[in-house]
Prior knowledge:
The complex is a heterodimer of chains A (321) and B (379).
Chain A: H1 7-23, H2 25-33, H3 38-49, H4 68-80, H5 87-98, H6 102-114, E1 119-122, E2 129-130, E3 137-142, E4 145-148, E5 156-157, E6 164-166, E7 174-175, H7 180-211, E8 213-214, E9 217-218, H8 223-249, H9 252-277, H10 288-300, H11 305-315
Parallel strand pairs in A: 1-3
Antiparallel strand pairs in A: 2-6, 3-4, 4-7, 5-6, 8-9
Chain B: H1 7-23, H2 35-50, H3 68-81, H4 90-103, H5 106-117, E1 123-126, E2 142-146, E3 149-160, E4 167-173, E5 185-191, E6 197-202, E7 211-222, E8 226-227, H6 233-239, H7 244-248, H8 252-269, H9 273-301, H10 310-331, H11 342-351, H12 360-371
Parallel strand pairs in B: 1-4
Antiparallel strand pairs in B: 2-3, 3-7, 4-5, 5-8, 6-7
Amino acid sequence: MRFLPDAEQRAFAASLDALLTAAGTPVVVRDWSRGDHTSGRALWSRVAQAGVFALAVPEAYEGLGRHPVELAFAFVEFGRHAVPGPLVETITAAVLLSGADPGIAERLLPSLASGGTMATVAPEGASYALDGDAAGLRLSWAPDGIRLSPGHGPVRPSLDPARRLTPLTPGGDVVDTTTEQALVWARLATAAQALGVGLALLDRTVAYVKQRSQFGVPVGSFQAVRHRLADAKIALEFARPLVFGAALTMRPADVAAAKVAACEAAYGTARTALQLHGAIGYTAEYNLSLWLTKARALRTAWGGPQECRALVVSAAGDRRW
Amino acid sequence: MDLAFSPADEEFRTEVREWLHTHVPCAPLPSLETAEGFAAHRAWEAELAADRWSVVNWPSAYGGRNSGLLRWLLFEEEYYAAGAPGRVSQNGIHLLAPTLLDHGTEEQRARVLPAMASGEVIWAQAWSEPDAGSDLASLRAKAVRTDGGWLLSGQKTWSSRAAFADRAFGLFRSDPEAPKPHQGLTYLMFGLRAPGVTVRPVARLDGKPAFAELFLDEVFVPDEDVIGEPGQGWRIAMSTAGNERGLMLRSPGRFLATARRLNGLWRERGGPVAVRDRVADALIGARAYQLFTYAAASRFLDGEAVGPESSLNKVFWSELDIALQETALDLLGPEGEMADTDWAERYVFALAGPLYAGTNEIQRDIIAERLLGLPKGRR
C-alpha cells in the first residue's frame, strides 16, 4: 500500500499544468463560449498529443490501454484550468466504443485517441449532449442502446457559458456495446474535473483575500474569512483521496462517492469564493466566473448528488465499505 | 499509487480478526466513564496486553509488536469492526507514549510504558487550566524546585479520565521569569493519589464523570518524572503534536465501523431520502477519512513530517463523528433520546471532539496560516 502519486504521475500532471498554463485557457474558454472553436481545437490537439484521450482507448485501437488513475490526474488539471469542450464525453465515448463491434471500434477509436475527433454523449434520460456542435461523433444513450446520432439541434445555454448544450437528432445506427463501465468512467472524470475546479477557486480566492484590503488590513486576516477558506480546504483535501481511491478500484460506489464529495467540495468552494470576492466575483467579465459556473454545472452532470448517494448506500452492505 | 496491502499485512489482519473473534466480549462493557465500567475496561486492556494486542505499533521491548503504522491502521479497522470496547488507556497511549519514545530516558520508558500497555497504570492528561484553554501557553500551575525534584501547585481542569485514572502528565510553569509565555514550562508526570493532590470529578453532559479538576498543593515529583530538560516542556509537548500522533489520535477504523452500523440501522428502520443522504454522507466521510489517512501514512513512511495537515484531520473526524451519531439518533426516532444506548454514549462522547485536542477554531486558524498562507489576524 502506497497511496501517493509516483514520480511519473506527478510529472504527467506537472507537464499538463505547464501546457495549460502556457495556453492561457481563459481566452480559449471565452472563445469557446461564443461558439468560436478554433483556439479550443488547437488546445484539444495539444492535450491529445500529451496522451490524455489515449488513456481510455485500448492499445488495439491506437490507445495506451485503460489508465483511470492517470486520467484522474489529467482531469484535475482540466478542472484547474477550466479547459472547455466535451472532455468527459470523449472519454465516455471511448469506453463505450471499446466494447463495440471491432469494425466500428477500429473506424472510430483511433481518431478519438489522437484528438482528431471530439465526441459527445447524451446521457441516458438527458435532453442534451455537451458541445454537440463541436463534436464530430455524437452518441445518444437510449434505453435500446447507444446510437450514432446523425446531427444536433440548436445550442441551449448552460449556467456555465463554456458548456454548450445541444439536443441530438433522433435515430441513427445502434452500436452494439456494453454500457456498464462507461458511466463509471464518466463519473470519475467529472469528479476529478470538479476537484480541479474547486482547487482553482480556492487558490484564486486565497490570493485575492491576501491583496484586497479593507479597514486598513488584508481581508484575509479576518477570522470569518480565514475559517471559511479553511473549511473549503478541508472539503477539497478529503475529496482528493476519494477521487484517486476510486480511480484505483473503479468500483461504481467508490466512484459515486468521489463524485458526491468532489462536486460538493467544489460547489461549496465556489460559494465561498463568490462571497469572499464580493461584487467583483459576481461579474461575468472577471475570470473567476469561469470556475464559479462550472462548479454548478458539474454537480448535476453524469449523476447528481442524490443518484450518487443512493448508489453509495445500496453498495454499503459490502464489507469493503 | 496503490491501495493493496502486502500478503504479510493481510495475514496480520487475519490474525487480528481471529483473535478479536474469540475475545471481544459479547455484551458491551458498561461506560468507561463510570467506576464499574472503568474497571471493566482496565481488565480488557490487560486481556489485550496478555496477547500483545494493546499497543501493536510499539517496540516489542515495551509490550508492542513493532507492527509499523500500516498494520496499526489495519489493527484499528479490525478492532472497531469487531465491536471491541473503547480504549480507556488512549490518553497515555496516544499522547504520553509518543513523547516518551521521542524525549524520555530509557529508564522512563522501561518503567512507564509496559505498565501503560497492560492497563496496570492508566493515565490522564493535565493540560488545561481554568484560565488556559485554547491559549495553553498562558498556563500558571507551577513547578518549584526542591531537593531531588519539584513541588507542583495550582489547578488543572478538564482532565479526561482523571476521576478514575492512576497518574497524569502535563505542563507546569517552572520559570516564572521566562520572557515569553511558552518558555519556562516543564513536562512532568505525577501520581493522582500522591499527597497534596485533590481530584474533583466533573460530570459531563450526561452526568458521567468523564473528566476532573485537579487541585495540587506542593505535590512532590522526583526528577526521574521530568520528561526532557526542565524549561523545554512546550517544545517537547508540541514536537509530538505534529507527527504521527496527529494521524493516530482517531483511527479511521472507528468511523468506518460506525458508518457501517449506521447503514445497518437505516436498512432496518428505513426513512426518507433526506436521511438516506445523511447515511450516504457518513459512509463517504468515513471512506474519505480512511483514504486521507492512508495517504498521510504513506507520506510519513516516505520520511515526510506530518505537519499542520493534522489540523485538517482533527476538524474532519470530529465533525464526522458528530454527524454519524446524530443521524443514528434521528433514525431511532423517539428512542433516540434514551441515554442508555451505545449510540447515545458515542453521541455524548462525540460532542466533545470539536472542543478538545485544540478546538476546531484553533485548527482552522492553523490551516489558514500554515497551509493557506493567510496573514495572521486577531483571534
